[in-house]
Design a protein that fits this description.
mainly alpha, single chain, 66% helix, 5 helices, elongated, 2 domains
Length: 122
């Protein structure tokens, strides 16, 4: 029984360590508390149990959303998407100019193929 408990403890510590490593890595720079992101990464890497607990208590960004979820919700993470006039993807069926250009290109390709076929027959 003590052997199983030790193995279970090791698995729990490893799971906590992996979770905290991923959380530190995916946290947006500048949102960590008390230390820079790289400092927390080294602490969690070098001290798996103590570093993980310290990260959760003293380093993780406020709001417990942290890491990946916070990065995805932050509008300033990719400022190029916020610029005015940026092309927004839409359904090709709704874009008449796109459909017209597709038809013109298809017609040009048909004419070129027909011309090549006639040249090959000659």
């Amino acid at each position: 029984m003590p052997l199983f408990a030790g193995g279970l403890f090791s698995i729990v510590v490893m799971g906590l360590w992996i979770f905290c490593l991923v959380d530190v890595i995916t946290t947006v720079d500048g949102t960590t508390r008390n230390l820079p992101k790289m400092g927390w990464l080294f602490i969690v890497l070098l001290l798996p149990l103590v570093g993980s607990i310290l990260w959760l208590v003293a380093g993780r960004p406020e709001g417990s959303g942290g890491g990946y979820r916070q990065a995805r919700q932050s509008p300033s993470r990719f400022p190029e998407y916020d610029r005015p006039g940026r092309h927004v993807a839409m359904s090709p069926d709704d874009d008449e100019e796109f459909l017209r250009k597709c038809r013109e290109r298809a017609e040009q390709q048909r004419r070129a193929a027909k011309q090549r076929q006639q040249e090959d027959e000659s």
